Amino acid sequence: MMNPQRLSLSFSSTSYKYRFVQGFIRALKRINRQKLATSLLSRSSPTEIYKRYLKVKSAADASMASAVGLRRAWSRALLQRIRDQERINFGNKYYKYCPAGTRIRGKSTTFTMIRNIKRSSDDRNCKDQESINNGALGWKANELRKLVPGGEAMDMCNLLDETAHYIKCLATQVKLMKRIADFASA
Amino acid sequence: MQPCSREMQGMSSLLNASSSQISLEDLQQQQSQSSSSIQGSQIHQIHASHYEPPPSHDDFLEQMLSTLGPPSWADLGGQPGKVPWDTTTTVPDGNGPNNKPRDDETPDNVPAFPFDESANLASKFRNHQISGGCGSKSAAAAAAAMMLQHQLMLARGGGAAGAGETGLVPMPLSLSNGEFDRSQNDVVDGSSSDVTLRFKHCTMDSALDLWPALVRRRTSFTILRHAIDFGGSMAAQQNYGASGPAMNQTQAPSGSSGAQPAQPRPRVRARRGQATDPHSIAERLRRERIAERMKALQELVPNANKTDKASMLDEIIDYVKFLQLQVKVLSMSRLGGAAAVAPLVADMSPEGNGGDCIQANSNGGTHGRTSNGNTNNNQTASSNDTMTVTEHQVAKLMEEDMGSAMQYLQGKGLCLMPISLATAISTATCHTRNPMINNNHHHPPIGSNGEGPSSPSMSVLTVQSATTGNGAAAADGSVKDAASVSQPW
């Protein structure tokens, strides 16, 4: 596995793809089983469909994030968010869902927090960061922060870094999901 | 003396064959170009008889020589009538060979130097430069001295001279002249300066090329001589070249990378018009990092030919939103039964980006479409009948293959575009189509498969009306560009 810190051409998505597809198909199977388990009547109600949509979407995101692993800030934040959401929505049974496992939980969150706090405090001295935040680029950067998971506590430099990787992974995800959908419907 | 001179001549013949006789060529060029100004009649005597013009390194030297200003050799040595490598005058050290008059410094006299005195010569050369010249100008020459010492160490056979090298090399660095230090650092460390690079390259080249010949000690005299001559002449030229903007270049790298020189006094001279405090340097580094990341992002985002940072950020934001929307749609498509569009539509924010090409195939597609078609047909009631037929046709085609659907549309003179773009074009080109625009606004951009065919058809309709209404061929062309964005996948 190559160093994912490098932004340019050397994005090895083969291993990402493989792990993503694995995790995603597994999740889909699980969701399908649940779908079959529910009664026929309630299966096609809008709320059920919506719930299932949510599950599928979070399954996709989670498998993508765990394929990336914890190397990237956005994947860590995404996994955290999904775990929290699932805990709220569906109770504790979804804890096993994310293949990344719970062992990373305590360490990763603290690590992320510390790292992000450090980064933002380092840049407080830098006038450039303020000018970016206040100027025309400022609110755009904040927009981007809202979009990219975990981007709230990042400075411009890392934000762009994470955005590039995130875009790559999203594009891969979309491609793979399309292919799966085509395969399933054919 | 006699055997040495014989060896000298042997060596000179050997050296003539090598291609790295830069000193010869540059000296000869010096002679040809500025013979009057240089007290190089001496050089003439010295070199013309013994050396032949080397075959290569023409372009580099020409560049160097082109930067020659009015040569003021006096500036170098601080004494008129002296050339840089003349160390005989200012040094109080009373070595016999060093006190020879300039005219006698022919190759025949060189072997008179015992090898140990070659080191002395180099150090005196350096000292001379320090004492005589103005700081920055002599820096180059002093740097040359350092290179010479390196070569000396090489000449001594490498390994054993390691200690000596470390002994000699730090010496110029600890000199009291602060300015000398800094400029020397600039020249030595300024690897980003072309002049310095070439200079280093040439010295190392000449040293390395002569390396096989360096094995034998007795040949080292000539090597030293070459090195000194080369270094001196190169230093002179470098001074002339450096008097201009090259000076700033050599100093700028140290200004911009102030942390690099590991010297006892790392004073950094700034570029013109820029501050030197570490904050601005850090800011500059940050800005460079951000710029390179933006460039990397530009490659990722399609259709990103914007040079402006702000518009680039806009593109990036739009693209990220678009991709996230696609993931949502794709995860929706797998559920089959996409009849329940309403909650989904309420969930998704009305974004026009993904309106065109997200057409996921699914078994429940037909169901969705029929259930949604009723709701949508009310909105499309104002459209022509032909348009609905086209709509259905396109929808059918989209189910099978996106490419064929696009071709069908293009055959009809239509194309797909995001609704936001469609509204922008229609408002810009024809203001009479307001009801159509309102329809587009009410219409959610994309929902499930059911929504899929209707939304692009709405945009198709708009395009056609705009085109037929105003003959806006330009709009069509630009629209095709927007549609072509989605082609890659």
Automatic annotation (TrEMBL), chain B:
Alphabetized UniProt keyword annotations: DNA-binding, Nucleus, Transcription, Transcription regulation
GO CC annotations, alphabetized: nucleus
GO MF terms, alphabetically ordered: DNA-binding transcription factor activity, RNA polymerase II-specific; protein dimerization activity; RNA polymerase II cis-regulatory region sequence-specific DNA binding
Segments traversing the membrane: none
Keyword Electron transport: no
Chain spans, region Disordered: 1-108, 241-279, 359-386, 438-489
Ranges where the BHLH domain occurs: 274-323
One Pfam family linked to the record: HLH
Annotated InterPro entries: bHLH_dom, HLH_DNA-bd_sf, IND-like
Subcellular location as annotated: Nucleus
UniProt entry tagged with the keyword DNA-binding: yes
Bias type Polar residues, positions: 86-98, 241-257, 451-465
Ranges of biased composition (kind: Low complexity): 12-46, 466-489
Protein name: BHLH domain-containing protein
